[in-house]
Amino acid sequence: MSATNPASIAARVDRLPSCRPLWGWVARISFGAFFEIYETALTSLLAPMLVREGVFHSGRNGLFGLPDLASLAFATFGGLFVGALLVSSLSDRFGRRPIFTYSLIWYAAATVMMSLQHDAIGICLWRFIAAIGIGAEIVAVDAYLSEVMPKSLRGRGFAISTAIQFTAVPVAGILAAVLAHRRIDGIEGWRLLLLVPVIGAALIWRVRRGLPESPRWLAGHGQGDQAARILDAIEAKVERRTGRPMPAPELVKEPVHIAPEGGYRELFSGEIGRRVLIMLVASCTATFAYFGFNNWLPTLLEAKGVSLAKSLGYSAAIAVSFPLAPLFFSLFADRIERKWQIVIGAGVTAVAGLAFAMQTSAFGWIACGLAIAIAANLLSYGLHTYRSELFPTRVRGRAIGFVYSLDRLSASSNGYIIGYLLISFGVAGVLAGITAAAVVSMGTIAIFGPPTRVVAAQARG
After folding, report:
1. What's the rounded Cα separation, in Å, for the pair 283 and 357?
2. DSSP letter, residue 425
3. CA 54 vs CA 50, 57, 121, 296: distances in Å
4. Is the pLDDT of residue 279 over 50?
5. Which has the least CB within 10 A, 147, 192, 235, 244?
6. Rounded to an integer, what distance in angstroms lies between the CA atom of residue 138 and that of residue 134?
């Protein structure tokens, strides 16, 4: 067997131990995905501030007779859908690394334009354009992480990556709480919230310049020599640190795939088509539950009579759990079957959602909100990891992008659904809808989702 074919490169990746270069790759790639989380977290935080400034309208006075938050959410997830759908196949064809670079540039430029707008239509339009860049980014991030992490460390890698990405939630929450009623040099706080990540995007672009391409992708596209050189370098560092040679890679018999095969048609047939369908149902319903609560938390609290300042403060307190929870998950990420982690996360989200509706005090809101946030984190992290493991390298970018794009498309209408439920049935109606979605996601994975250990044997690569 050639030392540079896809199977040999995959075996060399899988024998890598936990080491500094590997975690350096995880950190550098994850800080770019930070902005998807920041954008979605900012959606709920911006709306009350924009209503206060008279730019957005609540109740039936917004666009299409619904709260303007619904249109902002639609623009955000609609842009993520377009970016994921259009670019996912490009990441399979041209590599993961180019997508990281150009999507961040796109995002930063569009976000600057959004900060200059003065009405709901302009803000939603530029949010849609900015989100296209983030949609492209997240597909490449998931594919890259699943390909550079050894199978024994993949769950921990995704958990650590999620923790890094989710630092965006408390950052957005704290900044919103601080800037909600302030102007600096005549610039409204909400505009400053938009400009903060632009600076971060420029810094992260520089940090990522030395990031190598995915060795698995290179080997699958006839560039096995380059993939081998990347692994030679990291293996040499490991051997210098440990003082002993690397163990021989596990010999595997796998078909060799050079370049993508079958295109999108392969996603709709056989076992791969079945997995795509499972992930579509589970992901779309989980997203409804996840963002239905997190994007609308300040608005739900205001509907219960909590002031803007207090609702943003409570949201910031709950947001602190977002980067901490995945660090806890990393302790058991590769010890518990992935599908059952998803089921537990969805189940607790459903129960805590119902409990939140019955609370009448700040302590109850924060306690239930924390339970929902932690469980939803487990659900989200589990789905990201599980999704990346279900598909082989040759179609991984396409499959992740297709599922993610339709997931974002369904999420784009979630804001209108939540807005309708809130107006028609109040906070209890919103939380009932969130609970039902979590139950569907849980049942789909529990009944139909294949165990990842079986998947690893069938679709490794």
Report:
1. 24
2. H
3. 6, 7, 13, 19
4. yes
5. 244
6. 6
Domain count of the chain?
Answer: 1
Can you say how many angstroms the Cα of residue 429 is from the centroid of all Cα atoms in its chain? Answer: 26
Phi and psi at 182, nearest 5°, equal -120, 155
pLDDT at 61 over 70: no
For the entire predicted model, the pTM comes to 0.69
pLDDT at 445: 93
pLDDT at 211 over 60: yes
Query: In terms of residue numbers, what domain contains 45?
Result: 6-246+265-459
Distances (CA, A) of 334 to 158, 223, 230: 10, 30, 25
CB crowding 388-414: b at 16 or more within 10 Å, else e:
bbbbbbbbbbbbbbbbbbbbbbbbbeb
Predicted confidence at residue 460, as pLDDT, reads: 44
Contacts made by residues 457-461, CB under 8 angstroms, sequence distance 24+:
458/271, 459/389, 459/390, 459/391, 459/392, 460/10, 460/151, 460/252, 460/254, 460/392, 461/6, 461/7, 461/10, 461/216, 461/220, 461/254, 461/257, 461/392, 461/393, 461/394
Q: What's the CA gap between 191 and 220, in Å, rounded?
A: 44
Residue 187 lies in a domain: yes
| 67: CATH | 1.20.1250.20
Examine residue 199 and state whether it is found in any structural domain, yes or no. yes
Phi-psi region of 222 (alpha: psi -120 to 50; beta: other; left: phi over 0): left
The pair of structure tokens assigned to 59 is: 């109740």
277 — pLDDT class (breaks 50, 70, 90): very high
Whether 257 has a pLDDT exceeding 70, the answer reads no
Q: Check the CA dihedral 26-32-33-37 and report its sign.
A: positive
Q: What is the pLDDT confidence band of residue 281, given thresholds at 50, 70 and 90?
A: very high
In this structure, the number of other CB atoms found within 10 A of the CB of residue 291 comes to 24
